[in-house]
Specification:
The complex is a heterodimer.
Chain A (H helix, E strand, L loop, with lengths): L3 E10 L2 E11 L4 E5 L6 H9 L6 E6 L2 E2 L10 E4 L11 H11 L4 H15 L14 H14 L4 E5 L7 H17 L3 E6 L2 H7 L2 E6 L2 E6 L1 H6 L4 H6 L6 E8 L2 E4 L2 E4 L5 E7 L5 E2 L8 E12 L4 E7 L20 E7 L10 E6 L5 E4 L10
Parallel strand pairs in A: 3-8, 3-9, 6-7, 7-8
Antiparallel strand pairs in A: 1-2, 1-4, 4-5, 9-10, 11-12, 11-14, 12-13, 14-20, 15-19, 16-17, 16-19, 17-18
Chain B lengths: L7 H24 L3 H5 L13 H9 L2 H32 L5 H12 L3 H14 L6 H5 L6 H13 L2 H9 L4 H12 L1 H17 L2 H6 L8 H6 L9 H27 L10
Helix pairs in contact in B: 1-14, 3-14, 4-8, 4-11, 8-11, 9-10, 11-14
The chains are: A alpha+beta, B mainly alpha.
Amino acid sequence: MATVEFRSVTKRFDEVVAVDDLSLLLKDGEFMVLVGPSGCGKTTALRMVAGLEQPTSGEIAIGDRVVNHDSPGRRDIAMVFQNYALYPHMSVERNIGFGLRQRKMSGSEISARVREVSTLLGLDELLKRKPAQLSGGQRQRVAMGRALARRPQAFLLDEPLSNLDAKLRTQLRAELKKIHQLVPTTSLYVTHDQVEAMTLGHRIAVMAEGRIQQLGVPQDVYDEPANLFVAGFIGSPAMNLMRGTVSRGELDAGPVRIPSRVREGAIVLGVRPEHLTVAGADGNGTATLELSVDVVEPLGNEVMVHGWVAAEPYVGGQTGLRDLGGEGRSAVTARLDPGVRTAAGETLRLAFDPAAVHVFDAETGMRLIPD
Amino acid sequence: MRYLPFSARHLFLAPLALLMATPLIWMLITSIEKPDEARHFPPVLIPSGIDWHNYTAAVDSVPFGAWYLNSVIVCAVVVLSNLVFCSLAAYAFARIHFFGSNLLFIVLLATLMVPFQVILIPTFLIVRHLGLIDSLGALIAPNLVNAFGIFMLRQFFRTLPVELEEAARIDGCSRLGVLVKIVLPLSAPALSTLALIMLLWTWNDFLWPLVAINTQSHMTLQVGLSTFQGMHQTQWTILMAGNVLGLAPMVIAFILAQRSFVRSIAASGLKG
């Protein structure tokens, strides 16, 4: 096992900067997740560690060795591909053992390693099959097995779960975590799925436009997003964002009026959907807003209510029903108790704790810390 | 209409197939007829009896065995060398980015547009300079590698998922290792198609062997058979018997290779 380090790594494809001055250190045994929207440079960063792309500038080190000029085979890393990339003409057994055969291991040692890995992954019954005879989940396990059998310095995983259906994805996500607990190898995991990032990563690096927007423990990133991009990207449903101003100790965003100690000026207010509750009769110590309900999604254990409030919307970085907003209307989603009864066209008075809001600079998008 | 054992398309295709098969059928019939029947007009379509004598006459009257062997040797060497050299060149054009690779590939394709008649004399001069005229080497050397084969294999290699090759490189394969262990085993349909095409071309090639070979014992089958056609008279029955013997290996090869044309396992290791 070893550390993996990016030292001021930049990668350009002609005029496009895919990765921009990236510096990142994966500790020995750490599970690091690179998460971001497609085209943010996360896969390119991973491929540079694998040796499948050359950095335009900067260094990549595995352990204490700079590997910029090493071929992929000499870097002692293993990679799991999004489409598994199993060799179609080889049996499961030969797929798992391929990397070992390339390294001229003895036959008995190879079969011992293959057995060990196939037992760990529950592939014992499938060793003689060809990849075409396997289900998606089984192929994914074989791809994992091929990487594990090598016992490499580091694992590189490129969206390994994104081709699976939702149920299998959840199951394999937990399996991946278990495997890493059993075999704690330094891992770099690339995904656009923020749930995978939150659940798997020791630390996560949120990327956009080739740069790391925030690096930290998943809960910290969730609780204290460094900027508007991270705030909108991490969390599902995404954080509700609306424009406002702060002046003379008061934050004013459409229907919301709360005391605030951040610096004065134009801001963007963020409230997580789960921090909204139906306002009670007293409403002491809470702030409220009126939500015009558009769509109600009962999910059994909770109900998702989408609508809008009379505030200037912040547009950028969000997805989904936020498009319901418009001029002077800010889309808001609330995650409420399943007992809440409401319907499209109604108005719902919601309350939230003024201390639970996030405030961002409207110009720079950076998080504003109260003085 | 629905109850007919054929579709309307067959009403058009069946006569066309018969038209295509007519020369072959006529050849087969002629090869077992007596010389009078073969020369008869209108043609005798049902011979009075089967005369195998034509076949023995064809084999005995000339160095038939030597021609056959020459054809087999030339074909084997040309097919094998094309598989090796075309796949090496095709892989480089398909996957390795080097300076001028696109230009070089276009130049290579351009050579396909030049008819052989145009380069017949230059080829002859080069081969003579190499001292190979009137030997089997003259038939082999100019055909060791073929631009069409490079083009065909390059197109096929580009359809293979590049992740397989990347995975193999991470597993420790060299470029050549990737080609031999991953790309070629997945390219069986393309390789067998190329092998068959080269076999047909080489086996049936007539013009170049006719020009390059003078000694009777160095001739290939196609050139040798043409010697049955004299200036004043042609022994049709014996010529056709020889043709049947010459055609048989190609028909067999085609039937055998036809299956692998259809088979393609390349994408099965990936999702879907």
